[in-house]
Amino acid sequence: MAQMKRTVIVASAMVALTACAPAGYEGANPGAANPVAVTAAEPTAAAEPSVPPSPAADAPPADADLTEELNGRKVARMGSVVTDQDGWILYRFDKDTNDPPSSNCVDKCAQLWPPALTDGDPELTAVSDDKVGTVTRQDGTRQITLGGWPLYRYVGDKKPGQWKGQGVGGTWFVVAPDGKKNLSCLPPGTPKPVAPPSDDKAGQGDSDYSY
Length: 211
Description:
Elements: E1 69-75, E2 79-83, E3 91-93, E4 97-98, E5 101-102, H1 108-112, E6 123-125, E7 132-136, E8 142-146, E9 149-150, E10 172-174
Parallel strand pairs: 1-6
Antiparallel strand pairs: 1-2, 3-10, 4-5, 7-8, 8-9
């Protein structure tokens, strides 16, 4: 089984946050964003390492879209976020659990919020490796966790740097490099999720799904 890389790059640049942008603010190109300085939190007495996945879960499906990098960055107005290798901002789900790590987003939910799958060897930049782990999903694939929380993308984000999933359903939030919710910029009200890809004919923004 591949092991998590122990490479952590910590940058010292800190950027002052401005006022919150409207929901769906199209952030600056993540490639131009500044890395965020990360200080590893002291472990609590209740913290336990992730349970190693079974050997059957080591090899992801051949067509799996793997998350190969976790990058801590600064995005205009939102502040500290985590992106994948392509600059897509990652999220966490309040209906999941982090102790023990467990994903409760499956089926149509997972179509709308694709899990950040891994082969167990993502590269880390400005994300503490002691915060990163994996959880085995119901289908046997392995999903990256941060601070114990499973990570996801959002299909409502149409290009890297967007964070239209912030606050959706009152349960989805941009994840910070320490695994906590980024609550720097919350949209007014409670945004509804877009329709799952298979239900696009119904139109986006009219979904009654709770996830």
